[in-house]
């Protein structure tokens, strides 16, 4: 296809998306429509994820067109599916559409998008956080079922979840990356135990999850046995894009809170060094925003590439630095947090005060892949630098020494 033909096709696709969005907003005004109903209609029109196949909440179009949909819907006061179900919308949904059977896509995607069924991601373990492929939770085949045992940790919103994306080791004699398998697991199964992990905010949006002889039918496998590593890469690439790939309006989001704190601060805190710090952080926020826009423009179809780690790493460090600056401007008022009563929240990463946002930001460099892992990915897969020494790559997992 020539550049002219490609441009003409993109213009036609843009008009199609605009027309469908206008029809949705006209027939189902957000102010008069229940959020669940609106999101269902959005899904049925292919406007949930425009890059997904038709019938799966998409139109088979370039993912950059989703920005047109979101801007118009959010501008009209429409609901945000990401806020209602962040792990499902940004991570497990793309994984189901990439690896799931037709039956799984038909069963799971629509209620996932509407928020009727919240999802969680069951990857990290106490002994294998950054080394995800070293996980030790097991899955043993028993006829047409798999019996799963093990513990997962730092599972966001597990206490609200109806389903989870679970990766377990099904072949301990294979090398660690090759012996993994992914399943959809029923989080309401009596054999699944969910315990809260309390954060310094007082809340417990994270959990630890225990599986004791949990039976999963083979029809709930994503891909084939042994595909778990490749399935998880789909999830992780989308996770980093979801967490760090935001493209807000200039000066909005976290940096807007810093600007507001600057405007409200007394004159004795607004000296030249503090002003320089605010301006440097504003410039960094704009660089991250523009970098994410460029990455999105370069993405045609399919899963996000390793470049998503740039936004994830830079955004996480920036958030911490911004909230540190806000606390400096607040002075003693930064200590006025309120109650540390343990709460199990209804959504993830919500911060209704600057003090809470400061405490919550400490998780940014850990969740969704640590900053150290992001640096490794960027060094090896983007810059082409030599990788870390890995002595267990070709060794069967069962023979790798562990504590």
In short:
Helix content is 43%, strand content 13%. It has 12 helices and 8 strands. The strands form 2 sheets. Strands 1-4-5-8 form a 4-stranded mixed beta sheet. Strands 2-3-7-6 form a 4-stranded antiparallel beta sheet, with no helix packed on it.
Mean pLDDT equals: 90
Question: In which range does the helix fraction lie?
Answer: 40-55%
Instruction: Report the sheet with the most strands, covering strand number, pairing sense and barrel closure.
Output: 4 strands, mixed
What structural category characterises the helix and strand content?
alpha+beta
Low-confidence stretches: none
Q: Name the shape in a single word.
A: globular
Query: Gap between N and C termini, in Å?
Result: 56 Å
Give the C-alpha Rg. 22 Å
What proportion strand?
Answer: 5-15%
The strand line-up of the biggest sheet is 1-4-5-8
Description of the molecule:
This protein is of the alpha+beta class. 43% of the residues lie in helices and 13% in strands. It contains 12 helices and 8 strands. Strands 1-4-5-8 form a 4-stranded mixed sheet. It has a 4-stranded antiparallel sheet with strand order 2-3-7-6, with no helix packed on it. The model has no long low-confidence stretch (mean pLDDT 90).
Topology:
Blueprint: H1 3-27, H2 35-44, H3 66-75, H4 81-84, H5 86-99, H6 102-114, E1 119-122, E2 138-142, E3 145-152, E4 163-169, E5 180-186, E6 192-197, E7 206-217, E8 221-222, H7 228-244, H8 254-264, H9 272-298, H10 308-330, H11 354-360, H12 371-382
Parallel strand pairs: 1-4
Antiparallel strand pairs: 2-3, 3-7, 4-5, 5-8, 6-7
Helix pairs in contact: 1-3, 2-6, 5-6, 5-7, 7-10, 8-9, 8-10, 9-10, 10-11, 10-12
